[in-house]
Amino acid sequence: MRLACIDSEALPLFAKSPDGVTRDGYEPEAARLVFDRIGAEIEWVMVPWEEMIPAVRRGDADAVWCGQGMTAERAALVDFTHPYAVFNETLIVRADDPARAAEHLDGYRIGAIANSTNMKLAETFPGVELVSFGASDDVFGDMIEATRSGAIDGFVDDDVVMIPLGKEDPDFVEAFTVLTGNRWGIGVAPGNEALRREINAAIEGVIDDGSLEKIWAKWMPLLPFPLEAALLATSGRREQ
């Protein structure tokens, strides 16, 4: 099973691959759990962020498994499975910055990944200048360094990667988190219903037996496991 992803350092979601083949973190471990249940090996197809969905649509990958919030725009390009994660979104600023609410950001240069749910949130901040990122293999690292250098004043990403950054790196602080509850799914090529249903059944299985929750707790012990409610809300019913 060829899964499109970026090769970037964004723990606990994923670490930069040491060899261009293997990956570690919540997302790769969850993917192994799901596809072990299906009985399929994984080949990671590492491409820039903006090339992941096109790779699936071209047939260069079977699915996208990489931070895909299930937006209407993406759902027009790929068919999504049940969610395997649900996250909120956080703004990080430099440690000496007093901003703690969207209303404090007038005149700020705020970064986010182009065409992402994070950028959609940033677009709601009054008076900001938006700066798009996405042409690099390590877009998360690029946004960190742009904030550190002062090229931008802060950036928006998902709480799972941002809260540790704000707590562990003395150069940064978490300004605020917005409870957006974005559901992340695996995007398969449009019309590949057999694969989508097969992945859905595997996701249901690893939720029911508690194995996915164990992986969640291993990598993200400070975030509550949200998936049973999200699964039901997304699908309306179990796959038959």
Automatic annotation (TrEMBL):
Gene3D superfamilies: Periplasmic binding protein-like II. Residues 16-223 form the Solute-binding protein family 3/N-terminal domain. The keyword Hydrolase does not apply. It comes from the Bacteria. The keyword Signal applies. Pfam families: SBP_bac_3. SMART domains: PBPb. Keywords: Signal. InterPro entries: Solute-binding_3/MltF_N. This is Amino acid ABC transporter substrate-binding protein. It comes from Leucobacter coleopterorum.
